[in-house]
Amino acid sequence: MSVEDYHRFDSIKVFLHLIYEFKKGVRNLVLCTMCKSCANLITERLKEQNIEYLIQEVVENKVNLYFGKHACLETVRKFIDKPLNKLTPEEDFILGAMLGYDIAMQCERFCKRKI
Fold first, then answer.
1. In a 3-state reduction of DSSP, which class is residue 81?
2. How far apart are CA 60 and CA 53, in angstroms?
3. HSE of 43 in the Cβ direction (CA atoms, 13 Å)?
4. For 92-99, what is the mean pLDDT?
5. Are 28 and 68 in contact (CB under 8 A)?
């Protein structure tokens, strides 16, 4: 197995776990960054399970794949029109909160970025 195949396999394992957590209600929104070929495989799985998703191109062969509840994806569509490192502190905070990141840590990150 090549290194690329190993990473692809590893990405798919992580994805399967994240979809399990989404279906159990642990997560409302998931974000995975991966190669386009992995995203193609994963979006087929999402379609089979009737799970909404959104793809954002990062670079030529890398994408951000969001999936989750409709309301969360609609919110993401409102401000994810640029690279994630270009988000405002407010947008970054909202996205982190929606992804389930620790709120106190998000507050600290927001305050550091807002200076």
1. coil
2. 20
3. 16
4. 96
5. yes
Any idea what DSSP says for residue 99?
A: T
Task: Locate 12 and state its tokens.
Answer: 């798919």
Q: Give alpha helix (H) positions in 24-86.
A: 36-48, 70-79
Q: What type of residue sits at position 23? A: K
- Give the Cα separation of 8 and 2 in Å (integer): 10
pTM given for the model: 0.86
pLDDT digits (tens, 9 = 90+) for 50-78: 999 999 999 988 999 999 999 999 999 99
Q: Quick check: 5 pLDDT over 80?
A: no
What is the C-alpha to C-alpha distance for residues 89 and 109, in angstroms, rounded to an integer?
Answer: 8
Q: Is-contact 61 40, C-beta < 8 A? A: no
